[in-house]
Amino acid sequence: MQMTEWYIESRHGVVNACKFGKHYERYLKPEIYEQFLTIYVSADWESNWRRMYATIDLFRKIARSNSNTSYNRRLSSNIPSSHRSF
């Protein structure tokens, strides 16, 4: 959530996106907001793994485009970016 808030502020200045991203839809590009919605967990174990990887992918996308952060691409390359069967 913090990276998402930094991303929003880097593009819109200081805004009130409310708790838990209530107003993220107002400030995120539609494709990023849609990806953000996929990270919420459910009761299904397999679904939660997919959502965890979706969270990693979203974090990468936002971190790379956020000029206010230093993003370690080498470290990131060691983290899987897609769901595997367990």
From TrEMBL:
Entry-linked Gene3D superfamilies:
Nucleotidyltransferases domain 2 (1.20.120.330)
The protein's superkingdom reads: Bacteria
Can you say what this protein is called?
Answer: Uncharacterized protein
* Gene source species: Dyadobacter beijingensis
Highest lineage ranks of the organism? Bacteria, Pseudomonadati, Bacteroidota, Cytophagia, Cytophagales
